[in-house]
Amino acid sequence: MENTATLSTLSPFDDGVTVRHQHMGLLLENGSPNLAIVKALAIVHAGLFFDHLCDSCGSGEKALEICSLFQERLDNRAGVVTPKRLLLMLSMQYDMMQRPLPEVIWWLSGTQSLLEPFLTEFFQALHHIAQKEQSSQQR
Questions:
Q1: 106: CB partners within 8 A, 6+ apart
Q2: 3 state DSSP class of 33
Q3: Does the model's pTM come out above 0.70?
Q4: CA atoms of 24 and 95, how far apart (whole Å)
């Protein structure tokens, strides 16, 4: 019996990445993004990212400062902050925390139709988490 599901894709920039994205549920059979899955992954990873920030910074206050810097860049972007730049900012922050970029984010990085909605949802969720955290600290 032949294995037709063999994957030779080693990078999110290779031609065969569409098959991997379909296996992960990120793309529907017609090739369009599965936005429900992308949104769920973004929310989960934003929560993990915030917790990693708190752990690596040693305080919630420093983590909130970093989150506010991300938000400032997003608010003032006027078209200059592209998904690739946001990914770079996020990657650099993971490096500063001495953590690898999560594999799911790596696999999204080569596909604009997945990366853009993921990052939009990720930073919205991160902003929401930071606001809740800040409100609870002010009580």
A1: 12
A2: strand
A3: yes
A4: 25
Q: Which residues contact 59 (CB under 8 A, 6 or more apart)?
A: none
**Which band of pLDDT confidence, cut at 50, 70 and 90, is reported for residue 25?**
very high
Residue 26 DSSP code: S
| Main-chain dihedrals φ then ψ at residue 105, nearest 5 degrees | -65, -40
Which residues 6+ apart lie within 8 Å of 100 measured at CB? 94
> Could you give the 3-state DSSP secondary structure of residue 99?
coil
- Between the alpha carbon of residue 47 and those of residues 2, 19, 22, 111, 115, the distances in Å are 41, 28, 24, 23, 18
The encoded tokens of residue 55 equal 């752990």
How far is the C-alpha of 104 from the C-alpha of 72, rounded, in Å?
25
Q: Is residue 27 part of a domain?
A: no
Please state the domain count of the chain.
1
Q: Is residue 103 part of a domain?
A: yes
Residues 49-101: tens digit of each pLDDT: 999 999 998 877 888 888 888 887 777 665 567 888 889 989 999 999 999 99
Q: Are 65 and 81 in contact (CB under 8 A)?
A: no
